[in-house]
Design a protein that fits this description.
Blueprint lengths: L15 E5 L6 E2 L2 E2 L3 H15 L4 E5 L15 H10 L5 E3 L14 H8 L4 E4 L10 H5 L6 E3 L1 H11 L9 E5 L8 H8 L4 E4 L2 H8 L12 E5 L8 E5 L8 E5 L1 H12 L3 E5 L12 H11 L4 E5 L1 H9 L8 E2 L4 H8 L4 H4 L7
Parallel strand pairs: 1-4, 1-6, 4-5, 6-7, 8-9, 8-13, 13-14, 14-15
Antiparallel strand pairs: 2-3, 10-11, 10-12
Helix pairs in contact: 6-11, 8-9
Amino acid sequence: MRLPRSVRDAGVDGKAVLVRADLNVPLEDGRVADDTRIRAALPTLELLLERGAVQIRVCSHLGRPKGEDPAFRIEPVRERLRELLPDERIDVLENTRFDPGETANDPAFARRLAEGCDLYVDDAFGSAHRAHASTVGVARVLPAYAGLLLLAELEHLSRLLGDVERPFVLVTGGAKVADKLGVLKNLGGRADEVIVGGKMAEELREENLLPFPVVLPTDVVAASAFAEDAETQVAPFDTLPAGWLGLDIGPRSREDFAERIRAAKTVFWNGPMGVFEWEPFAGGTKTVAEAVAAVDGYTVVGGGDSVRAVNELGLADEVSWVSTGGGASLELLEGKELPGVAAIPENSG
């Protein structure tokens, strides 16, 4: 895999640096609800400070605003970053998506972002699959380097595309097969087993679009309605009561999936086994999280609900790599080139 040149090789002493970080964090009541992504940006910022950068301008999008929207102002993120890394040389620019030039990769907006800076560091792996002004356009204006997090993501995820220790198990779930069909075909074709839960399992049971067999649930936690407080019962996948919905994998499937996962030497997990945000239907996802954490081998977890599960269960330290990239991880593992990575000159070392 092509690796971009590293921020470690950049001469930053006395320079002003523009950093694209992934500070797209959840907000609640005007405050940062989860600062995981902010903390993930700290190593690169600390490196730049240690090496003598005179100014660091950090830019990021926050949410998906349609133009300027007070609900998505960057100020809560700015305040949290200052608490974690109080240094007057650091400033956080306003939400890049307030300007329509961001998503249009407008050269004029890229030049405004770059104004007054000597070099650019992209540390936003989670946005590397977007050809935006702050991820691609600026790299055409300033000398560009990859940040520590971006490099770590590329190195860890690329291991899954090489010669892995076997058995190699891919575990996935979620709502739509179409969202993950590319990575299922590319990475799943390399795996020894592909385990599928969630709504995706129902789709694949009706029509397997993949050129290999998959492991599907044999039982489900059925609900009388799509509601957290709905009546529930465990049922075989093919005998749900009329009008009922399968909202989680059942206990027999959990045991089967966990046994297969624990026997693996390499695991990639992306996607919940059910409606994980509702406690009555979180058991399957929790079981998979615990099984992945118990693997004696190389494990990678990506995707919002999967990452949330290992974090809430206190298992993140038991996983080899917890990826910050959702769509970017999937596109990389699908074999696609990421525009934000391609925009940075290749490492010549």
